[in-house]
Amino acid sequence: MHITQGPQFNGKASKRLHAMAKPIGAACNIDCTYCYYLSKQDLLEYKKGCSPRMDDETLETYIRQYIEGQNTPEIIFSWQGGEPTMLGLEYFQKIVALQAKYRPAGIVISNDLQTNGTLLNDEWCEFLSEHQFLVGLSIDGPELLHNTYRTNKAGRGTFRQVMNAVELLHKHNVKFATLTCVNNLTSQNPLEVYRFLRDVVKSPQMQFIPIVEQKTFRTTAPQTWAASDQLKQGDKRLIPGHKDSVVEPWCVSDQAWGNFLIAVFDEWIQKDIGKVFVQYFEASVETWTGRPNPLCTLNELCGKGLAMEPNGDVYSCDHYVYPEYKIGNIHHQKLDEMAYSPAQQNFGFAKSRTLTSQCQSCDYKFACHGECPKNRFIRTKAGEPGLNYLCAGWHKFFAHADKALAYILRATGHPVAHGKFSDEALRQHQVEMSAKKTTVTASFSSKF
Ligand code: SF4
Ligand code: SF4
């Protein structure tokens, strides 16, 4: 569900939705240790009638419905996997031909493609450049860090192939962003990772993704966890690598997540602001001015991006592709009806309705909103279930960045709507100071 109403387009209410299509499902040519999608092959029972390749009829139905379900100047398609380039270039040539067939006059159609980069070649990059795809390239940092978990099926690292993709993307002027998983290892090397992406990859936009996976994630849907199983914030069993840990050993810990963001933020703010784009930091700047966070994970509501499997099954979110969160199939329901359905709206609003009291009274609720519900599997220190596993790290980062963000906004003439150094906090402080001064002056005068 991604509904934008109010503005008009073409004489009618503007209507927008977003879905992440997985035309090859979870199939992938490599085998990253922490991949949350490979296990879907079993969970969604592909073998029992769900082809791992979206057939022509489903593809055309999807493209037609996706376009017909929106009324906006630009329609953005997102293609993900598994590894979508395994479908071959011809498949994507068919995609752009179908988009041209159904594109209403005056509407721009754009495409995003998420890839591990290992199959990209000159031909692919010429196509991506010609059709102005925005490529999301997965790369975890310098060779040793990247190769630890991003391995091929023989267990060998994929770093060389990904760096070849980086060269090709630059050579053909393909728009791209890097996606870097912050895991137990990369989180310990924040500056090595950041400087590598900045100086070697020359990443036009950096996206960092915290890896958080409970040991039960392959079979158990988020938010179906028993409250009694949730551990309190600070419990040692929440630390990745602890002998009784409830999370996978490759996960980032809450503290390490906060420390990673802080180290990268400090370097970015001192040297690179305005030159290097780090998605979380750009989004935080927006939030501090009072605008909503553009990232779903830190926005008040969620459910703004559906996920669709090769057989046309639609789920509430890419992170909720579990039978409990299936909301329909495009062969039986229209995509926009599913996007606007009560089930999807409930899913979206539940994010703010289920916030713990710790979040409700948090100084940084405006910036965090309890982060992604898929990570809300711990208890607050007071024992309330449903707190985010990364809470301590997020809080540490926001508290650290607060003053610098306010300073930058004020220095550039922008409002500072939130935080401990907001315009309102400053005004209050000045009122208090001037009241104190008046009292001191009054008591001083009364003595003479
Ligand atoms: S569940 Fe998480 S990833 Fe999905 S829309 Fe909500 S915040 Fe975003
Ligand atoms: S920092 Fe923690 S307490 Fe504050 S809103 Fe985020 S998850 Fe909730």
TrEMBL record:
Domain of life: Bacteria
UniProt entry keywords in alphabetical sequence: 4Fe-4S, Iron, Iron-sulfur, Metal-binding, S-adenosyl-L-methionine
Molecular-function GO terms, alphabetical: 4 iron, 4 sulfur cluster binding; metal ion binding; oxidoreductase activity
CDD domains: Radical_SAM (cd01335), SPASM_anSME (cd21120)
Pfam family, one: Radical_SAM
Domain named Radical SAM core: residues: 11-248
InterPro entries associated with the record: 4Fe4S-binding_SPASM_dom, Aldolase_TIM, Anaerob_Ser_sulfatase-maturase, rSAM, rSAM_sf, SPASM_anSME, Sulphatase_maturase_rSAM
Cofactor(s) the record lists: [4Fe-4S] cluster
Homology family: Belongs to the radical SAM superfamily. Anaerobic sulfatase-maturating enzyme family.
Name of protein: Anaerobic sulfatase maturase
